[in-house]
Design goal:
The chain is an alpha+beta fold. 64% of the residues lie in helices and 21% in strands. A six-stranded antiparallel beta sheet has the order 1-2-6-5-4-3, with helices on one face. The longest helix has 113 residues.
Length: 234
């Protein structure tokens, strides 16, 4: 059942990925360097902060030095041959929360001009491909994060199961010890009953002996009387 759930989640995430492919569009948007041409990538169901962090890591893979100020990422001297050729480019980006999605706006400074489909058609196509690769990365990261979360839930359930097993073992031991104590108490009770019965029999024997002893005492008293009488006769 768990595997089925993960698989269905994976399929859903793949669907999200294919949806993101159609959510690239060109626009002009304000940023720290003024109002410039940019590409917008909309990522459904993803957290804006995570998208921002992952995009920063993504551009660092292309030798860029990054810094973030007021939510805007600046990637200095990124080496993306498919877009800049042998020249480095500067990239600005901002991830903002939308309704059920994150809107990532990316500006490509080619050095004196910002990337646009009209002025740089070939490079623009490569930039879209580059952003699609990032969307793949985000989908993969999202699946990995979900898998980790599900694994943590599984580990928590397994820990709870282990606790239940330990609790059962304690309960089983308690039952065994209790039954052993009951058995010992039953043996003691039986032994006590036997001792009581023996004491009753000993009491009967004792009374019989007392009776015989009393008769011996009376006989001995008679003997003493006769001896005393002899003494007086002399």
């Amino acid at each position: 059942m768990k595997k089925i759930k993960i698989f269905l989640t994976f399929l859903l995430s793949i669907c999200v990925y294919f949806q993101t492919l159609a959510q690239l569009r060109e626009t002009s948007a304000p940023m720290s360097q003024g109002n410039n041409n940019a590409i917008i990538l909309e990522l459904d169901y993803l957290d804006a902060e995570k998208v921002s962090d992952e995009f920063e890591k993504y551009v660092e893979d292309f030798k860029a030095k990054t810094k973030k100020k007021k939510g805007e990422i600046f990637a200095d001297n990124a080496q993306i041959k498919s877009i800049g050729g042998n020249n480095t480019i500067d990239i600005y980006a901002k991830a903002e929360k939308g309704v059920g999605k994150t809107v990532l706006t990316v500006w490509f400074d080619l050095g004196g001009a910002y990337l646009s489909a009209k002025t740089h058609p070939d490079k623009y196509i490569e930039a879209e491909k580059w952003l699609r690769e990032f969307s793949k990365r985000m989908v993969k990261k999202s699946i990995e994060d979900e898998l980790k979360a599900e694994q943590k839930k599984l580990e928590a359930l397994q820990d709870e199961q282990k606790d239940l097993v330990r609790d059962k073992e304690k309960l089983d031991k308690g039952i065994v010890d209790g039954e052993k104590n009951i058995k010992e108490m039953e043996n003691k009770i039986n032994q006590t009953k036997q001792n009581i019965e023996k004491s009753k029999q000993d009491i009967v024997t004792n009374l019989d002996k007392q009776k015989v002893k009393n008769e011996d005492i009376e006989k001995q008293k008679e003997v003493i009387k006769r001896v005393e009488a002899k003494l007086k006769g002399n």
